[in-house]
From TrEMBL:
This is TrkA-N domain-containing protein. One of its GO terms (biological process) is potassium ion transport. Residues 136-220 form the RCK C-terminal domain. Residues 3-119 form the RCK N-terminal domain. It comes from Paenibacillus sabinae T27. It comes from the Bacteria.
Length: 226
């Protein structure tokens, strides 16, 4: 079942932006922070924003937190409070508990407590930005497993006007273009007769090795042409 009602605990930069995005997507969000200013800032923007200590079981019960589908612990810096809050959400019976970790050890502790999803925003964003900096055409990527990924790349000018048959990524590199996104719309599962145009976004699936090779070749060719 998809979560409909969320409680976000900790309305710092991470918690606040997550809560606002959920609101934007039409979900109900209860925001909790023990800092008055942070709560005031969010009062008009969330379904409810409450000033409370999230480690206080009585308060959390009275707020009806246990009836919500998903709890996000967005407290990072104070590991003790983050862990106590995560335990409390689990004990109260919140179906899905997500928590932000600031170190591997913190993450491991949260996992051991049964937190359903541990996220490392700073670490993951650092990795993502590093990838994007060294691969100019890379817009985004998803790791499917240790060895496979899906990437979004802008089509370089050296591929402008070429058909997928000409580019032939499957035979040359072992990866496949599974979608094209351009101004006119998205082409899902393009065929060999579809064409690439510079600036289009292509979604490519394959092994890390095959995609890295494809990226490198596209970029190198682009640089050679420049
Ligand atoms: P961010 O990196 O997201 O900007 P931050 O650096 O401001 O966060 P953190 O220590 O990660 O600070 O805490 C995030 C938020 O959680 C803060 O607004 C803080 O007031 C709140 N918070 C911390 N402990 C509790 C608690 N026990 N109950 C409620 N809110 C808490």
């Amino acid at each position: 079942m998809k979560a409909q009602q969320f409680v976000v605990i900790g309305l710092g930069r991470f918690g606040a932006s997550l809560a606002l995005e959920l609101m934007e997507k039409g979900y109900e969000v209860l925001g909790i922070d023990h800092n008055e200013e942070r709560v005031e800032e969010m009062t008009d923007k969330l379904t409810h924003a409450v000033m409370a200590d999230a480690t206080d079981e009585g308060v959390m019960r009275s707020l009806g937190v246990r009836n919500l589908d998903c709890g996000i612990v967005a407290i990072g810096d104070n590991m003790e409070r983050s862990i106590l809050t995560a335990i409390l959400l689990k004990e109260l019976g919140v179906k899905m508990v997500v928590a932000k970790a600031i170190s591997i050890l913190h993450g491991r502790a949260l996992e051991k407590l049964g937190v359903d999803r541990v996220i490392f925003p700073e670490r993951d964003m650092g990795i993502r930005v590093a990838h994007q900096l060294v691969t100019p055409h890379l817009l985004d990527y998803i790791e499917l497993s240790k060895d496979y990924k899906i990437v979004e790349l802008t089509v370089p000018s050296c591929m402008d006007g070429k058909s997928l048959a000409e580019i032939n990524t499957r035979a040359k590199y072992g990866c496949s273009i599974i979608a094209l996104n351009r101004e006119g719309g998205v082409i899902v599962a393009p065929t060999a007769h579809d064409y690439l145009y510079a600036g289009d976004i292509m979604v490519v699936i394959g092994s890390n090795e095959s995609i890295d090779q494809f990226e490198e070749e596209a970029v190198n060719r682009e640089e050679a042409e420049a």
